[in-house]
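Problem: given the chain below (172 residues), write out its structure.
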Amino acid sequence: MTQNNTFEFRKAETSDKDIIWEIIQQSIERRRIDGSTQWQNGYPNEQTVESDIAKNFGFVLTVNDEIAVYVALIFNDEPAYSTIDGAWLTNGEFVVIHRVAVSEKFAGQGLAKKLFDQIEDYVKSQNVQSIKVDTNYDNAAMLKILESKGYTYCGEVILAGGVRKAFEKVLI
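Solution.
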């Protein structure tokens, strides 16, 4: 990736839906090829993307105005997180990261890490100090990102019928 790229982190728009769904489908297939059970049961689906955008949960990271990464950011609302086998670091307001998906065109370029930096800046700008996220035990790429970005393992949650590793990062 050259230094001359222009990055933008913004809310997803209705007109972005088709490309976002395409990126999620690529990620579903990548997880399948990697031997993961995550995202292999019909979720997320096109309606998930539509709902994310309608509720202002959907965000994209663009590279030179082209959508490269999709993520859903949900403020203070993840019912599955109310029951954790372990303990969260905080009990106040938080943002949940869901549905991180990188376009095949941009895979392997470090954009997921860049996305997490953008998310942290955005969450701070909203005066929220905590980010919570979960992932499958077999999602090695996401586990590596969470470790590199300083997320703390807090325990297990049950989400979408499966046990997930749950993490939190307190922003200072």
